[in-house]
Each structure stands twice: as structure tokens, then as C-alpha cells.
Amino acid sequence: MGKYLLRRVLQMIPVVIGTTLLIYALVFALPGDPVKAMFGDKPVNEAVAAQIRSEYNLDKPFIVQYLLFLKNALTLDFGKTFSGQQVIDVIGRAFPVTIKLALMAFVFEAIFGVIFGIISGLKKGKWYDTVILIVSLLLISVPTFVTGFVMQFVFGVKWHILPVTAGTNPGFLDLLMPAMVLGSVSMAYIIRLTRSEIASNMNEDYVRTARAKGMTNNAVTMRHILRNSMIPVVTYLGTDIGALMGGAMISERIFNIQGVGNTLYQGILRGEGTLVVSIVTILVLIFVICNLVVDLLYAVLDPRIRYA
Amino acid sequence: MSEQMKPEQEGNISRDASSGAAEDFVITPFPGQERFVAPLDETPLKEVDTVDEDEPATSMWADAWRTLRKNPLFIISGLLIIFILVVAIFPQLFTKLDPNYCTLESSLNPGSSGHPLGFDQQGCDIYSRVIYGTRTSVSVGILTTLIATLFGGVIGAVAGYYGRWVDALLSRITDIFFAIPLLLGAIVVLQMFRTSSSIWKVVLVLALFGWVSVARITRGSVMETKNLEFNTASTALGSSPMRNLFRHVVPNSLAPVIVIATTSLGAYIVSEATLSFLGIGLPSTVVSWGGDISTAQVLLRVHPEVLFYPSLALAITVLAFIMMGDAVKDALDPKSRTA
């Protein structure tokens, strides 16, 4: 296990370097001169422009810029945004909000996805199974932003149950609706996954054996069917944490939450390369670490899998 | 691998020198081992191995097709998809109106004769825009799926089949792209091509980040298939690795790839709409559901119907493709079938 862990961590390094290089290349290949853009309508003062270029390392060749970025990133020094703020401060403000949002979405999708999935899978063919299945299909087919608008309109504007927008420093209630919107599609996928896993495990030989031994129905369900069905669900949930952080952009834009997604989106629009690369690097790191944890969890959950 | 490549080590197969006929093989067992093959005249081959040649051959595909035909999910989604394709190819059959003919004086007018769904803020006919938007969404979905599946399929097949350093290299490249969420990567890249205005840029960008999942699944499927007996047998008969890959491994690993391709088609359509919603997908000159939903969002509180119709069309289309994916999965993956 220790050896496996070490190998996986070592394998992570080229992936993180490759991904950041790819993103860095994409961002800094953006057309347009960001320094010129900073001057707006005013004529460009060449001396000032040159000073800004050297301050942001924009005058150096691409690969040198990238290596400098990597070196500084290791010490959490991500440089400054064009408005002079430290990138790390901007990230420090945005991340807690998004982490809160993503965790709420995660809890929401995990609880409701698994519960509805189990109900639906165990009682296949009943009317409520059909209802759950149709609702989950609808949640997948309707884009998140439409779900978001409709919920915002119905619960926020019409019925005044929940706040319409979150604004700065959002609390639990402010984030409730955005979190539900963010987690809705994943919840639908978890329902479908749980349902199909239960359905296929019910036909397994070990379930038949357990029943033949005279085990009660409840014991068979709890110990054999559910336990085996949860392995892929846990995997999905694990990889979803990272995906939720990255996917928060839509929800944050609809409900005006000043989180990572919104900051990143504005950064891209303004051509703030440093900010974009820094945020994406952190998101990628979170995503890669989540995947690693899930792989390790596999061995704990499923004794059949043992790592060499 | 190397052990499987040399089946002749298992027993000595040599040509019978005395008979001279090419078909005659004599199996000499290992020294000291008893002879285990009965002489041919004791059990005539024909009586043991009779094959009913009149019965139609059942391949996995024929079997899957038989299951599919009986599945109501497949029939409903199939009919829906055919209808959607007809609308996408011949929009003029369904409306005589030009989706880009907009007069401000009819802005937000309710439905009237000839304009069943009314007008949007710019005074364009909503029905006609919904009909013409079909082509955009469907072509983005189909083209992206084709490119992502072909590219991801080839990468995954090569990685899974050749193994070793080829696999290590291709898998790391796959990991790099896998670590970037589809939407995030698409936004960064699309920002670069803001000026270009065709659906191809959206297609290529979605495919650029979409091929990864296909590659991973193909790789796993190929690795499973390449160790099966028929492949070893083919190698023993002298087939080249390339021939093996295309004749035996690829056809037998296709099922999971087809399943993910069908399912992700709907997801690509949603992604296109989301990008257009963020304002960096398709240009506003292209009639698309995502773009129309995006422009209608400001009207949600006063005229929700303007937002409703393109959303409905989008949802029905995605639903049809997802249901089709479910049906195909049921047919190709016997394990997920329930008795």
C-alpha cells in the first residue's frame, strides 16, 4: 500500500506539470496585448509599458515565464493581478466561499442521490421508481443554468422562500439554492448509478446464496446488496468534489456569488493570465488529489482489490 | 505477452514428413506424457461436431439488435431522434418564416395566427428560431461525438494494445487532459478564438477535452479483450499485431465505446448551450437554443415563455439521446439487464 501510494504521488507530478503547462500555454497564447489593454483609451507610454512587462515577466520567453511561475507557485507567491492585488489574496477571498458551496452541493447530492437511488433500485417497477427515474432524467437533460433560473424565479422571486442572490459573505441560507442547483445534475447521475448497481447486484450469485442460507431479506439487502452497490457510488462522489469546484462557475454567475468560478470567469474576460493560471492550477491539484484518495478508498471498500 | 506469443512450446507440432500432405499434423506429446487424442477413425469428426448451417448466425450485434427492437425506451427515443434529425436537416418543412427576420414593432407580442409561440424581445418569431436552432445543437452534438470518439478511440486502443512505454506515455497525456474539467478548458480555449464565428470552433474545443473519457474506456476494454483466447489463437496462426488489433480486438471492444459515445452526445449538446449561455460559445449570428436562452434570461421575470420554448426543445433533444444511450447500454451490456 505504501509503495503504491508513493508511486501514485510520483505519477501525479508529471500530470500536474503537464496540466499547468497546457493551461499556461493556452492562457498566454491569448491574442491581444494585456499591457496595452491596461492603458485603455489613453496612448501607451512605452517606458511604463516596458516596466510593467518586466514586472510581470511578460518580456521573457514563454518557457522562462512558465518556469518562473512554477518556482514562485511552490512558495505560494502567485504574483499580482493587473489591478495590483496579490493573487493569493484574491484566491484567499474566493476559495472559502466556493469550498462552502461545493461542500453543501456535495452533501445534498450524496444524501438525496443515494436515498432516492436505493428506494428506486430496491423497488424497481413501482410507480415511485418511475417518478424518480423521470425526474433524474429531466435534471440531466435540462441544462444547469435553466434549472438555476427557474429555481431562482420560483423560490426567490415568486414565493420569497430563499434569497434571490447571495452577494458577498453569503451564509447557509444564501447558498442553499445555489448548492442545490450545482449538485442537481450529479444527484441525478448518482440516483441512476445507485439504481443500476443495485439492480445488477440483486442477480449476483452471492445474493442467491445468502437467501438460500435462509438470511432475512433485510440482512441480505443491507450486508450484500447495498454494501457492494456503494463502491462505484463512492468513487463517483469522490471524483465529483473536484468537478463541483470547477463547475461552480454557472451557479455562481446566476446567483452572483463572489467565488472561484466568478473570479475565474472575470479573469478570463479581462485576460488576467496570472490569475487564471493560478486558480486553474489549484483546481487541478484539488481534482488530482481527490482522484488519488478515491483510488486508495477502493482498497478499503473492496477487499477484492489489493495493490501490489 | 512473450509467453503467449510462443504456443508451440506447449507441445511439438511438426509436419508429418512421411505423408507429405500439407493438412496432416501429428501431435507429439511431451516425453513421458500419455497420448490423449483418440484416433480419428474411432470418433468420426462429423458426428461430434455437427453445425446447423441453416440457422442464422448470432453475433453479439445481432443479439443486441434483437434486444433493442423490443425495448420501448429504444422505440420512443429512436422515433424522437428521427424526428429531431428531420427538423435539423429540413427546417423549412416546419416553418416558412426566416428566424433572422425580426421587426422590433412585434417585440414580445403574444402568439397569433402564423406565429404560434409569439415573439422574443428583438421581434423574432420564437417558433421559427426554435426550429432552426435544432440544426445547430444537433450538429454540434454529432460532430463532437464523432471527432472525440474517433480520436479517443484510436489513442485508447493503441495504448491498451501495445502497453509498456506507449501506454505509459499515452496514459500520462490522457491524465493531463483528464485533470482539466470540460467546461473550464473549453472556456479558456474559446476565449482565444473569440473572433472566429463558426460552429467548428465549439466542436473542436469540446472534442479537445471530450476525447479523454473515450480513450480511458477504450483502453480498458482493449486491455481486457487482447488477452482473450481468440486473440492468442490468431497470433499463433501468424497474424500480425496490426491485423489482430483491427480484425479481432477492436470489434470486440467496441460495445462500451458505443455506449459512452451515445450517452455523451447529449452532454455535448448541453455543454454547447452552456458555453453560449456564458457568451463565449457560438456567435450571436448563429441561431442556437443556448444563445436564445441566454438572451431571454433578462426577461425571465416578465416573459418566462421566451426562455421556456428553447429550453424545452433543448431538454427534449438531450433526453432523446440519453434515453437512446440507456437502451444501447442495456442491449450491449448483458450484466446490467434485469431478468
Automatic annotation (TrEMBL), chain A:
Keyword annotations from UniProtKB, A to Z: Cell membrane, Membrane, Transmembrane, Transmembrane helix, Transport
Principal subcellular localization: membrane
ABC transmembrane type-1 domain segment(s): 95-298
InterPro entries: BPD_transp_1_N, MetI-like, MetI-like_sf
Membrane-crossing segments per the record: 12-30, 101-119, 131-155, 175-193, 233-255, 275-301
Pfam families referenced in this protein's UniProt entry, alphabetically: BPD_transp_1, BPD_transp_1_N
Membrane topology: Multi-pass membrane protein
Keyword Glycoprotein included in the entry's annotation: no
Gene Ontology CC terms, in alphabetical order: plasma membrane
Superkingdom of source: Bacteria
Subcellular location: Cell membrane
Gene Ontology process terms (BP): transmembrane transport
UniProt keyword annotation of Repressor present: no
Family affiliation: Belongs to the binding-protein-dependent transport system permease family.
Protein name (Swiss-Prot/TrEMBL): Peptide ABC transporter permease
Taxonomic source organism: Bifidobacterium psychraerophilum
TrEMBL record, chain B:
CDD domains reported in the protein's UniProt record: TM_PBP2
Biological processes annotated in GO: transmembrane transport
Alphabetical list of PROSITE patterns matching this protein: ABC_TM1 (PS50928)
Principal localisation: membrane
Membrane topology: Multi-pass membrane protein
Domain of life according to the entry: Bacteria
GO CC aspect terms: plasma membrane
Record's protein name: ABC transporter, permease protein
Organism for this UniProt entry: Bifidobacterium psychraerophilum
